Each structure stands twice: as C-alpha cells, then as structure tokens.
TrEMBL record:
The keyword Nucleotide-binding applies. This is Site-determining protein. It comes from Pseudorhodoferax aquiterrae. The gene is flhG. The lineage of its organism: Bacteria, Pseudomonadati, Pseudomonadota, Betaproteobacteria, Burkholderiales. It comes from the Bacteria. Keywords: ATP-binding, Nucleotide-binding.
Length: 275
C-alpha cells in the first residue's frame, strides 16, 4: 500500500473516470453539485456512481432522501457485498452511501485505506464516471480520496473565507500531491463572469506563492459557475434533486452546462487528459 501523501490516481484503463468534488471550506455545495451533476451526466447517457467519500459526516442520503438498509459501513465490516450496497438514486444514477456509524472510518488507518481502495477498484469497471463527494478541508481521508481521482473539482463560493480555504486546499494538492491542474466551480455567484474573475485572481496568488514539484505553478481551469438560486434550497428542503424538482431553474441550467463541459473535455475525451 502506498503512502497516503503520494497521489495514486486510478488509470482510465480500469474503467470509470474518477472525479473528486472537494472544497476548502465546508457547506459550499459539494453534495448538491455531486448529486445534481450525476443526474445531468446520467441524462447525457453516462453510467454514473456517486460515492459518499465524506466517511465521517456523510449527508448524500439526506439530499437524495434515501434510506438504504445496507451501506459502505456493512461493506467495510464484511457484512454485505458492494453490489448489495449500491442504490439507485432518483436522477438515473447509482450511489454508494456511507451511512451513519462511519465515524470510526473518519481517520485514515491502513484498513480504511485498503477498504476504500478495494471498493473503488471493484466498482470502476461498471461505470463511466465515479464521482467522489468528499468532505471539506485537508484531512487525511479527504486528501486520500482526492488522490485517487484523475480530475479534481474544487467548489468555492465568492466569500473571502471560502476563497482563502480553497487556496489552502489547492496549495496542498499542488505541493504534496503534485497536481498540475485543478478544475474550479464557483457556486452561489451573484453575476455572470464572477467565477472567471475569482479564478484568475486565485491563479495570480498561486503563481506567486505556490509551485508544484516540477517547479511549475498549478493551473486552475475554470469549469463554470452556478448562480445563487432559491430553487436550490427549496429542492434541498424537499429532499429532491434540483435537476428533477426545477430543471429549468438558473442553477439547474448551470449544472447542465457543467456536465456538458465535463463530458466533452474529460469524460468522453479519448486520451483522458482533459486538457
Ligand atoms: N447555488 C446555490 N444557491 C443557493 N443555495 C445553495 C446553492 N448551492 C448550495 N446552496 C445551499 O448550501 C447548502 C449546503 O450545500 P451542500 O450540503 O451541498 O454543501 P457541502 O459542501 O456538501 O457541505 P459539507 O462540507 O458539510 O459536506 C445547501 O443545502 C443549499 O441550501
Ligand atoms: Mg457534503
């Protein structure tokens, strides 16, 4: 087993592209994005599995209103198979939920690492996209989950605290994991163009202060923005997917556009470089 600080992205040859959704600060919209992006990608014909990679504090089940009897917890403890723990979500994709009782897995022990890796390896051949909904911040479990992904999406809001934390997280990904590029999703924007401006400001700071191992700066790729939209909160309160509840809302249309971009640049791209 490799050192958790060393990135071991899954090669595309094994099957699904592994995409991590992460953030510096909590509560910025990772789970909302993971679930709705999965629905948008499923609509485009992709076979998608969302994995609750926020082992200690998972809440994908809450957003999707699912109450599975079998979860990752049972897989980790050998009580169930992975196939038994995979559930169909309303948006036409599959989910693997952590469930409560995973608190003991919120620390990255060698066992947790092996179990996690085993689960990802075994589901990869059956899907086109594996979305890892991770926790916020730079804990070892989050960094391990992110290290397995071939592409990382960092979600941030325009708030200064979110941007400072995004900077800190990207710095770790660049310096410890030697990530060459990171895709930015700016959520809860007020005006068109905000996300692009924020991304280029962050890029300028990174260029000044952070280099990857090769002496290069990490490159931020602006994937897109999602506007602040009351329909998001309404969908969460109803425990429904925005893509199902309000597919014509501005935020849902933005997620549809993100899915299109991701599909065309990363998922369906033959060389898998996404560049
Ligand atoms: N574009 C948006 N417009 C309005 N509200 C939003 C938007 N995106 C997210 N929210 C609100 O933010 C809340 C938190 O989102 P979410 O649970 O997806 O964050 P998270 O990053 O997964 O949090 P955690 O770090 O705790 O896992 C949502 O329940 C919703 O009310
Ligand atoms: Mg979440």
């Amino acid at each position: 087993m490799s050192d958790p600080s060393t990135p071991t992205p899954m090669p595309p040859a094994l099957g699904a592209r592994v995409l991590a959704v992460t953030s510096g600060k909590g509560g910025v919209g990772k789970t909302f994005l993971s679930a709705n992006l999965a629905a948008a990608l499923a609509r485009r014909g992709q076979r998608v599995l969302v994995l609750d990679a926020d082992l200690g504090l998972a809440n994908l089940d809450v957003v999707l209103n699912l109450h599975p009897k079998i979860t990752l917890h049972d897989v980790f403890t050998g009580k169930a198979t992975i196939a038994e723990a995979i559930v169909k979500a309303p948006g036409g994709f599959s989910v693997l939920l952590a469930g409560s009782g995973m608190v003991e897995y919120s620390r990255l022990t060698p066992e947790v690492r092996d179990e996690f890796l085993g689960v990802i390896r075994s589901v990869m051949p059956n899907y086109d996209v594996l979305l890892l909904d991770t926790g916020a911040g730079i804990s070892d479990v989050v960094l391990f989950a992110v290290s397995l992904a071939s592409e990382v999406m960092v979600v941030a809001t325009p708030e200064p605290t979110s941007l400072t934390d995004a900077y800190a997280a990207i710095k770790v990904l660049a310096t410890q994991h030697k990530r060459q590029h990171v895709r930015m999703v700016i959520n809860q924007t007020a005006r068109p163009g905000d996300g692009r401006a924020i991304t280029s400001q962050l890029q300028q700071v990174l260029d000044r202060f952070v280099t990857t191992g090769a002496g290069r700066s990490v490159r931020l790729i602006h994937l897109g923005d999602i506007p602040v939209d009351p329909a998001v909160r309404e969908a969460v309160m109803r425990r429904q997917l925005l893509m199902v509840n309000a597919p014509g809302s501005p935020a849902a249309m933005a997620v549809t556009e993100l899915a299109r971009k991701l599909d065309e640049t990363v998922i369906s791209r033959a060389d898998g470089t996404g560049n």
